[in-house]
Amino acid sequence: MTPERRLYSGEQPPARFNMARYCLETAARLTPDKIALIVVSDARAPVEQAECWTYTQLDVAVRRLATGLRDLGLQPGARLMIRMGNTSDYALLFFAAIAAGCVPIPSSAQLTAEEAAFLLKDSGAQVLAQSAELALQPPPGVQVLDSVAIAALRNGSAPLDYADTAAEDPAFLIYTSGTTGQPKGVLHAQRSAWGRRPMYQGWYGMRADDVMLHAGAFNWTYTLGVGLTDPWANGATAVLYNGPRDVTVWPLLLEKFRATLFAAVPGLYRQILKYNDLHAFDLSGLRHGLTAGEALSVALLEQWRQVTGKELYEALGMSECSTYISTAPGAPIRPGSPGQPQPGRCVAVLPVAGGDDPLPVGEIGLLAVHRSDPGLMLGYWNRPEEDALVYRGDWFLGGDLAHFDAEGYLHYHGRNDDVMNALGYRVSPLEVEQCLSRHPAVAEVAVTEVAVRDGVTVIAAFVVPRDPDEPEGLDAAPLLAFAHAHLAAYKCPREIIFTDALPRTANGKVRRRDLARHRLLKSESER
Q: Is the pTM for the entire model greater than 0.90?
């Protein structure tokens, strides 16, 4: 990207556009009997036992569910929250709501009941689709769909035609960490699926004959986008696993289903290499791996190459725009850089202090995406004050610090705010701090990421105990248990570090960036 190019230069979506139609209708017409979705519950069972959906079956099931949702009284724009396990019904409901012109809210199965209840209330959802093991007691006026009701809607309704939505109409609402400590809703338009088109060749090298194996769950937007939306929009096959968590299943699935593309976070690639002998599997069908969610270390890239002979192509993105920086097949990988702006993207680095003129090569600033990008969100749900904070003129600022080198490769320098990255999820330290501060043994607490080894960071909580003379005041176990009772597992600290005081500025504000150094000094003093 040159500083002079100030608009998204890719093709813009048609004025009338429905994301679900875009993903399913063409393939259902042109390749009706092709397998669109394979759901694997037992990686060691015969291939024939996997749950398979052709494009025709998928198209009909989604449109029947759309009819059922409209029959429930849901009007275009109405919200439906999905709190379900990792089953195909999750994906069907997500696309069915969009097909009906409604707005699904995919939520993580890892959220506690307390966290899920906040999303339900904040979004104003009229319907809650939930699995028995994740059941909430919804407030009055919210309809509940259980597995039996979902099956009835899927099998008993005539298929609805895809809603005639505008490209700018809302499509789905996802929640991410907010600067105030409460999750905030990111509202995406129907055009968001069209806005993913630069990824097809700018990251995946996607083809219609591809088999995409994604290591994520249905309830993760990384999976809903990379694992389903994009393969289906290209007439490819998506493979997802919903069996027990077991790092040894991934090479088996790659071999068994002849996956050509594999998508995961770097941490999973690291575990796959550690706990599997990949030479014992036939991975000849795999063209390359895809990784996003956290930085890919140079050491991990080199180890993967050495063991498999395959490349790993990295991407950088955010909840508000998905991925927009990446390396693609045919482009040189620059270790330590996620790549270059995807074709058509208008990306720049702006001065931290202000102004909307892009910085020259080599200077570090705030990474920005032009508001003309069709993949960019509509805005934050009912939070106009948040919208005002992230736009500077025609540029959206996601909070990442970076610079471009002379060849246009981006080099990432972390966050300009305190938002953390946990297994590909953005986590606000305020949310974790607010939770732990309610524990009676805690006088003060500050939370940040700390490095535990090269390329691996964990969330750590620095706690000033209320009564350091009490034995329980220096016991991490109750605090960890308290966090797990109130927060999703990926938000919970992996370390509790007790300290006499927290590092602060002259004005009394906690210096989170000094906590890791504080931890190191404390460790050295205890030796």
A: no
